[in-house]
Amino acid sequence: MQVKIYGFNLWLVTTKNAGRLIVFFLNFVIMDALSRFFWFCSGVHQPTLEKHPTEHNKYVGIGATIFFTGLFAALSGGYAMYFVFKGDTAAALFAIFFGILWGLAIFNMDRYIVSSINKNSTSTKQILQATPRILLAIMIGMVISRPLELKIFDKEIKERLKISYLNNQRSKIDTLNKAFTNKYTIELNKLNESKAQRDSLENGIKSDRQKLNFEVFGTKTTETSGVMGYGPYAKRKEEELKQRQQNLDSLNSDVRRMERFVDGRKQFDGLLSERLYTGKQLDSLTSIAGFADRNWALGQLSFNTDGTRDTTTALAVTFIGLLFIFFECLPVFVKMMSSRGPYDRSVENLETSQIHASEKDRDFEIEVTDGVHDTRVATTIAREKELLTKL
Predict the structure, then answer these.
(1) Pairwise CA distance, residues 281 & 168, whole Å
(2) Collapsing DSSP states into helix, strand and coil, what is residue 196?
(3) Which alpha helices (H) appear in the chain, and where do they start and end?
(4) 69: nearest Cα among 323, 339, 319, 337
(5) How far apart are CA 238 and CA 231, in angstroms?
(6) Contact 265, 180 (CB under 8 A)
(7) Tens-place pLDDT, residues 199-248
(8) What is the pLDDT of residue 12?
(9) Do 21 and 93 touch, CB atoms closer than 8 A?
């Protein structure tokens, strides 16, 4: 509210205006602190940068990029370390500690890489300075992107791990069966022969029993008389069936004995304890899968289960990795693409003046040392001459 007293315009602070002023003040303080934090992240000399307002936003952007790169590195490192210690009660604490440590290391490295590029040198020299830093940034981007890719494709990785675990279990069972077959070839062949004889004997008994029924009930066939009644032929046939049934019982006893032996050997060699994983077992295995298994599964997402290349998934994985690599290289590119501004000139002048002051300090120390030396020499000479004259 504005009032006029004795010809002067005065502003009265109302409650509404006070609230607006407080909000404005808080916003100003927060934005100023945030800007200074990002200046720190960019590695600039803040007292010099404050003199050039047109350069403020540029280095806020560079600092923010470096900060978020370090933040992504912390998330990536913590996520990777969580799988290293997964199953331990302190896994989350280890992950948080290592994530913060890794993020600070990457942040410090990026800050050094950007701040060490000298904008006051020629373009060729800047490119030579930036080349090893860009290569280092690419390596850092690859390291950062991998754990984040593991999280992005978490569902697909679990499905691929389930397929892998099933195939490995099936291969293990097949290997055990082959080894068992090679080890007990004689016993298994004998068992198979006995089973074949038993089956043949059972079929023969069934056929002869049918013929006996035809003979008793007078059914005419090529092998029956067609006369109803229990005659000599039927009696002889029944005696043969009894004998063959005894042989079958004896053969069944031998087969069961050999089967018990084979089952015992399978139990001893571990064949009976190996089964294909159930759905719950697969979920449990994928949930405790380590970093190496998940990393392998991520690489396998570029291929279908039949071995053909899955172009869509391969491109998705590749471009996500390239995105993080580009994000890591972005501060260097921004610093190189930006023109030489007043801040860079001020830094050059400051360095020149500091070098000049350092050289003057060196000259001062040299002159003082030379003067002291000359005085010391003259004093020593006078003292020596005085001693000689006394002699």
Answers:
(1) 14
(2) helix
(3) 15-42, 46-49, 56-84, 91-115, 123-152, 154-183, 185-216, 232-269, 279-287, 291-300, 311-337, 342-390
(4) 323
(5) 11
(6) yes
(7) 887 888 787 777 766 666 656 665 565 656 666 666 777 777 788 788 88
(8) 47
(9) no
